[in-house]
## 1
Amino acid sequence: YQLHIKSFFDSNNDGIGDFAGLISKLDYIAELGVNTLWLLPFYPSPRRDDGYDIAEYKAVHPDYGSMADARRFIAEAHKRGLRVITELVINHTSDQHPWFQRARHAKRGSKAREFYVWSDDDQKYDGTRIIFLDTEKSNWTWDPVAGQYFWHRFYSHQPDLNFDNPQVLKAVIGVMRFWLDLGVDGLRLDAIPYLIERDGTNNENLAETHDVLKAIRAEIDANYPDRMLLAEANQWPEDTRPYFGEGDGDECHMAFHFPLMPRMYMALAMEDRFPITDILRQTPEIPANCQWAIFLRNHDELTLEMVTDRERDYLWNYYAEDRRARINLGIRRRLAPLLQRDRRRIELLTSLLLSMPGTPTLYYGDELGMGDNIYLGDRDGVRTPMQWSPDRNGGFSRADPQRLVLPPIMDPLYGYQTVNVEAQSHDPHSLLNWTRRMLAVRKQQKAFGRGSLRTLTPSNRRILAYIREYTDADGNTEVILCVANVSRAAQAAELELSQYADKVPVEMLGGSAFPPIGQLPFLLTLPPYAFYWFLLASRDRM
Ligand code: NOJ
Ligand code: CA
């Protein structure tokens, strides 16, 4: 469960969410049924990139509380069986970071200067793409103090650290140890493909970048064997695979599956399973002790970097007709507005998220079907205050509405008076309660998290069907059949399941038994946008 402290709950009514507020809402998160919290950056920062522009690594932004509050939060989360993932943002810092201030004043070529990447001209590394296309013209920005250009893959106030300087890696490992010593369970490695620059390359995924990751992992293995590294590498599957490392995995334990995400939306738009089955086919095997992280939405734009130009145009036209919804190479909308509040489609995509191979990541508020505000700058429109109740400011804060860190959603369809935790908690049919049930069902079966995946090939391409299978150490096997109708019309499909002849498909949400599987193709009909999860049970166990 991914959240921003700033937008979750404000305990002291200054308009900004804080650690104390988050602690008071931990029961809500635990009751949802998730097992891990991923916190967006909460360090001192000018917040020109919502905290990814870090000005001090080993501290808490005073708006959010103190180090003692952070420590208390970790303890309270652990008490509830929740693990904590924080951000290790090491590709860049804020230009306000003392390392940068020192570097720009230091002598050329000195250790201090070389904490960042400098050049006398802005043509070096010109084979490198610009990521924040809507804001930046170049990956170089002139620094009048240093009298040189500095390198940045993101905003021009975010200079990239220079990992060719061994002091930088040492300092970064110091930061990592600081948070691990405090009890953090995992670290999301932000923007990890861009650590090293080399002439004549596109400066992504370089072997030297992987060497840095191997050094970071070695530190974890030596001193923190029960902690986890999660790679944010927005890359194609074959370029993401190396972030798990070699052999048993000597880099990250987990990595986000960026290409799968837009293809779930694509399948829905095209009413065809092909985008999903195609990317699953291209997804390489990963070491047994590694795992994908999968997601539908997060705090950023729905990135369309990992699709072809034609696919991007198609998705933009379908999901972001309003140009204000587009930013960089993506769409700044939340899940519910993307799907026009269609419960069937929200449930369908969520069922895919919860049943495909990998650890599902939920973005705060999406469990309510929260809306967004595309009139806010950058990606702030998907980072608005959590909607707790119909009270002032959605129950997020009792501050003057003008003082809030971001305005809450107030439109008639998605506003906090309509969409909020309190109302949905009392409604047995709410999206919130549906999500809780789904998470509870998912947790009963190990096959979802650990099982293998095999896609079936019914001739009806509007039907996506796959088998998740897991055998535990005692030799007990779980088989789950997932079937989804990605079309707006009712569909029938014939599934070749003869290898499971005699098994009885038991629908997992309602518990009802379907006719046993035989030698002939198994016939299923599905209403529009419907999905089924079946546990294939032995007849004698029925
Ligand atoms: C990746 C983060 O997810 C995004 O929010 C941020 O803008 C970039 N890194 C640059 O810091
Ligand atoms: Ca506050």
## 2
Amino acid sequence: MFARLFCWTIAAVMTAAAPAMAEDGYALWLHHARPNGGSAEAIARHAAAVMAPGSGATALIARDELVRGLTSASGIAPVVTDGSQGASPQGGSPQAGAIWLATPASAPGLPVKLDGLGDEGYAIRSLIRNGQPVTLIAANSDIGLLHGAYAYLRLADTGASLDRLDIRSAPRMKLRLLNHWDNLDGTVERGYAGQSIWDWWRLPDWKGPRYTDYARANASIGINGTVLNNVNARSDSLTAPYIAKAAALADLFRPYGIKVYLSVKWTAPMELSGLKSADPLDPQVAAWWKAKADEIYRAIPDFGGFLVKANSEGQPGPQDYGRTHADGANMLAAAVKPHGGIVMWRAFVYAHDNPDDRAKQAYSDFKPLDGQFADNVLVQVKNGPIDFQPREPFHPLFGAMPRTPLMMEFQITKEYLGQSTHLTYLGPLFEEVLKSDTFARGKGSTVARVIDGSLEGHKLTGMAGVANIGADRDWSGSIFNQADWYAFGRLAWDPDLPAEAIAREWVAQTFSPDPRVTGPVVAMMMGSREAAVDYMTPLGLAHLMGTGHHYGPAPWISDLARPEWNPAYYHKADAQGIGFDRTRTGSNAIGQYAPRLAKILADPRTTPERDLLWFHHVGWDAKLKSGETLWDGLVHHYDDGVAYVANMQTIWDSLRPYIDSERFTQTQVFLGIQRREAQWWRDASIAYFQSIARRPLPPGASAPEHDLDWYKARRFPYAPGHP
Ligand code: BDP
């Protein structure tokens, strides 16, 4: 009892003495803000003690995270007991309200079933042991315990009832990876949150605390791997000094269950060792990669494997030697296979000398290779066939390569969705893609079931997200961008989670579980991506952003050397209408989808209106479902998008009493930027399309603020994230 009181006192003193925490966003969703009276007491009651097994690094992290989080959330520090000192619910008398962390190794005969939970899953269960209420967090491994500990904290932080818990959870995807597009010079391609968090220059010696906080944040949402460097890779990442640097990070991340991976440049054997070729079928080349893999595994025994961008956007690859993507992937796969490594081979390919519709090229290259990849290769496919647009139909490769594990690639960083400042929550975008039906094996063959392996029985499965993380204090360039990182992790763990539930969790943990906060903020977030679609590229339009930096509208650009560099290539507006004909009369990209879906998409009347202009060239006066003409409807979508942002501003302003001033102000200012830029998108797009459609604006719609030339004259030489 005395010991307990003593802990309380220490906690009280610590809490009182601690400086007020700056609300700069650094704490992410691991904020553990103290909820109002009732739930803080309930947390204290259920978590009076934490009993942890053994002394393994991971189990200790799980214990410490619980202590740290629960102390912060309840104001009272739980007592820490070691199972071996007789306080275990197994033997001695447990403390009422203890959290008991246990694996079969630490406590044989656990009163929960752990089969099916694998190495990373967990069970949480409320029990009565020796007359005392106890919450058991059990798993097959310490990593599972860590995930269970974070799940428990999530419940506590979101105000869930902690009384009768009976939860089992295991990840649906084996690989849940961030892809950092970070360069060795500290810049981040498509990064809008400052410089890279990897301090390559001072690694491996200096390992700042941020690396551990990065690992904590990722582990808390189940992310289990990180590709450290840009897919536009430099060979230097594979030199001994850089391997040592990556190894230092791997050592820090290992106790959190996170492996490191590297992007590789195809011609590394030529650049680093003077080989004459990088032909994957050349035995010397294969031997070079094998030796390189051996070297990496000596430094990083649990190294995850390689990510490859080849024969894409100027990157070298096996096709330069007349070989296929499968030849290339398999050669690398053989090098890492003895060590248990994998290869993620990207399907993001399109070539300047291929006149075919860019949206078709990945499918044309990869579909014929189905069945030819080694069993430790995944083909990593972007969610849509072009490039991370505000909206794209799902990539036709999903469902079309049954014999190949396909890995999803989402973009968390908002290259095309407002970059750092726009509040455009990506949960609904991710959810829309995952729920899309490929019809590959009849109705219900969703993209989620393709990538979680259940449709075709693949064991090697995964989801990658291009990170939005940088050295900014708030990690992601804005508080609300953190929600996209969070949503990605949660969906990689369980692709069936609703985006709205994820948003609610995130708001509760980041700001407060108070319904006066969660209600309006979740509502704002849920419509925000559709609003961006509306003010940027409504009705299935795509890729109308300024070439290169992708910041702001430039639908008029049509004079660049490569056709697909020009926004005009994507909208094809002319005097008759607008949109890309991808039916049989056009590029027939529709033919890449399953026949049942292709049939729906072949007819503009059955094509979902949100994708209309992606698949069809439609007359300006054609009627939309609302009864208005396409031209009028287009203008109304632009207006709806701008109005949504204005509405978010009003809602946010009303939340001032509930949000700390730092995060309130940042969001308020950013919403102001978003409002201005949404208006700019709307006005510039209307000014341009009106010059082609030559129709009056519908009644009530206001004329663009400037003339078209004014919009065309905007230049952004220093826009961030642009390589
Ligand atoms: C595009 C980006 C470019 C990337 C490329 C890729 O504009 O910077 O290198 O994708 O995914 O979205 O390889």
## 3
Amino acid sequence: MLIDLHMHSTASDGALTPSELVRCCFERCGVGTMALTDHDTVAGVGEARRAARLCGMRFISGIEVSTIWAERSVHIVGLGVDDSNAELLEVTADLCDKRDRRAVEIGRRLDALGFENMFEKALAHTHVKSNISRLHFARALLDEGAVRSVQQAFDRYLTQGKPAYVAAAWPSIAEAVALIHRAGGVAVLAHPGRYRFSGGDWQLDALVEGFVESGGEAIEVVSGSQSPSFVPRCIAWVRRYHLFGSVGSDFHSPGGERPAPGEQGQLPEGVPSVLELLA
Ligand code: AMP
Ligand code: MN
Ligand code: MN
Ligand code: MN
């Protein structure tokens, strides 16, 4: 059966509830080992774990922590975190508050561009009425008929440098890695092939080196959020820094642009799996 260690539920900006996601993985996608990695929250982990137990799947608790590096947002996945860890719960509650305050400002900026009540419209796209993501705004802009696709909503309004982009004071990579470690987890650099730095290639190498110096253990070698042609570069980092490899679809919703659970591909031969650290 397939492995998928990066997916989202309605606890952040996914479209399926944690139990719907588990059933989708098990019944439709052939995934036998999964992690739930919602943005900045472990609120869905308990429900997903119970659903996975009923299916007899291997379940790994997870989170995708937003961080800032070289003024860009970089995502650190934590796998195997204790979802009852007091510090993790406290810090993630604060991160979700930051998201919601940022969303108020994104809404203001969109309204200033001629839209109406965009904060409320994005909020209506969330399941938990909190932890608002730019993806919720993209879906709301699509409803308005303002854009033809989620991608266009990002390209026109929501990406860094565009009029409704609002920077958030996310923690540093070192803070996120330390938080994940103190909660008993392993830190994974998410989709390294997706970051676009002004400095280009050398800056991406510096990012990976910084992540390793912060104590990070693994990188996503195969991700639904990065091109398959990026795999060799990841393997080079794995060898150079003695990292472990992870795989994940970054699934958000059925029919989305990303691959279905498990569909991203599996770890290439010879790359040590992050699962070895999660026995
Ligand atoms: P946030 O964490 O709220 O800043 O938003 C990040 C979310 O938006 C994640 O789910 C990303 O997968 C998604 N996202 C970011 N950039 C893009 C893009 N260019 N096209 C589509 N989705 C994106
Ligand atoms: Mn997302
Ligand atoms: Mn991400
Ligand atoms: Mn993700």
